[in-house]
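re: that complex we talked abt at group meeting.

here r the seqs, copy pasted straight from the sheet so there may be weird spacing, ignore it
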Amino acid sequence: MPPRDSINELSFPTIADQALSGKPSQMECEVIELFEQFRDPLLRYTLSFGISVHDAEEVVQEVFLSLFRHLQLRRSRKNLRGWIFRVAHNLALKQLYANQRVHARTTSEWTIANEQFDPTPDPEEQLSSTQKRQLLLAVVHALPEADQGCLRLRAEGLRYREIAAVLGMSLGSVSISLTRSLARLIRADGR
Amino acid sequence: MLSEYFHLSDQEMLLAADGELSTRRAAQIHDHLTLCWACRARMAEIEATIVDFARAHRQTLDPQLPPIAGPRALLRARLAERSSNQGSNSWRSLLHFTSATGVAAFLCTAVLIAAVVGGIVIRHSTRRGENSVVATLERGTLPDRSLTPGATRRVTISEVCSMAHEEVVGEVSTSLRQEVFHEYGIVNADPNDYEVDYLITPGLGGVEDIHNLWPEPSTSHIWNAHVKDSLEQRLHEMVCAGKIDLSTAQRDIATDWIAAYKKYFHTDRPPALHSRIRRCSPWQAKAVHC
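got the structure back, here u go
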């Protein structure tokens, strides 16, 4: 007999009892733990779509409520990280289309890039670092959407297989996309 | 083993750097890099660019990320709400009978329980007048959580407490007020019937955002905007006195402001002074104290 999944062991009277007693269920605790682990990477990823912070927060909340439903229905627990990012990707896109805020894309990262400085003491280093960051971001912005997505997901720690699942691409395409993007960044940096 | 006279492609080097190759192939790449200066230099360029991009990505977006405490509390509340709904549904499914006798027995028991509970409730209501359960059912006194979950900005305690509560409350723009009415499906609203109110007041870090605004009926006799004002004032004072933390205040007022009022004023019913009906224009937000 295969080992029972801890979630599956929660029979309905247990859930009902916990709900009525006001104590968080094991599943709620698990979702909160995953929220703590992935909230910042997800928020960064959804913000990169050019939606507002509040919209991005709401997208992330919706992702974890969907995850809760997903787990309640005892659906697959394989590659939950990929699943979470895929749902976030779809919801962020939906939000972006709903908002029709095309111009927001240029404001979020650029505004911050222009305003933020590294806390290094040397002003020349500060300027150089800021300019370099602006250059990198400009190159990234000029990349096709899919290439930008691959780069950002990789920066959040996703493996190629997970990126492929989130963006609906083949594994080979992810590899080619990342290679192409990095080659452009290297050229832009004049290395 | 790869020949040192051939060079690796960028793709192979990236796959190796990202740990996406088989152990055998990764070992071959490693051996080649040991021997080939050109490929090693290219590999260094790739890795340096990855580091630069990852750093730029984070440094650009991290300053925008609000603290996790508020959103985590909100998610907890939402999960608890859903669990609670599921719990009640589960009990209903437990009471599902398959036989006709079972249904009849269940109905008789239900009628009996309803009669007993109804009698208790009626007696209780008669004794206390408008009880709190009935009062909370005044339509619209609580916002629709799916439309108005609350929204906050990144704010420090010193910022919140540097001004009196009423000074940090701004007026909601006309266009946003109209959006709120539209979202709630209210058409041709009588300005005297609603006030577009903040769920989490700006004095507690709330923002002028559609997710933090709802049309609060001005006609509510008990749980109206005046009562909520009193709660906001109390929470602001408690936060600034260090009696509760800001995220708790935000969470409590966003989850159920009536429950929060009962909790922080230790009463089931606001005094008449708090519930007085406003005479100013309900189209005005809390900026205008009339």
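couple things i noticed - Residues 1-16, 104-119 of chain A have pLDDT under 50 and may be disordered. Chain A touches chain B through 61 residues (CB under 8 Å).
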